[in-house]
Amino acid sequence: MRNVLLISAMFLGVAARLPAQQQAATPVVVAPSESGPPPWPIKVATIFGQNAIVSTQEGQKASAALNAKYAPKRDEFNRKQADLQTLRDQLKKSQATLSAAARDRLNQAIDAQNRELQRLSEDSQSALEDDEGAMMQQLGDKMLGVIHDYASRKGYAVVLDVSVPNGPVLWASPSVDITNDIVKLYDQVHPAGSAPPATPPQKK
Length: 204
Fold this sequence. Notes:
Radius of gyration: 27 Å
Structural class: mainly alpha
Largest sheet: 2 strands, parallel
Low-confidence stretches: 1-30, 195-204
Number of strands: 2
Strand content: under 5%
Distance between the termini: 30 Å
Mean pLDDT: 81
Strand order of the largest sheet: 1-2
């Protein structure tokens, strides 16, 4: 949805320059135009792009597939985390009775287990982010086509993605939000029975 975000950023740049221009500029009185009526107001819409993608039937199906794919990794992480906690509890309970050599060995085992757990977490998170990025990119490209078609038929000049926290859109009326309409239209154009988005191979 890069095109939509670019439009939002452009509007932010204009808005940021307005106060300085208004203060520096000399007031100008513009005479009413006699050539005809003023142009129609520009129609602007907003959409929560990320929410729209994951709310579609395809998005929910792809998210469920990713959840199932990484369930074994989560289970492995939980087991290793429990093993690490067991070692820490053992050290805490037996610290007064263990020899210095035994304490060193236990501390080394804890450090090794902690490093392994951290490495597993980082690798799994990186792979998950790659897969999620591929899913969002593929579904986002398809959704962009749906948005273009919808906006053209409804006469919208601009559609702004407001899903990014602290983004360029400071406020928008809920009445111009087309998220639900786009989700419904997407599900009609791209039924959930179609093939799920491809994901990159796991990192070795």
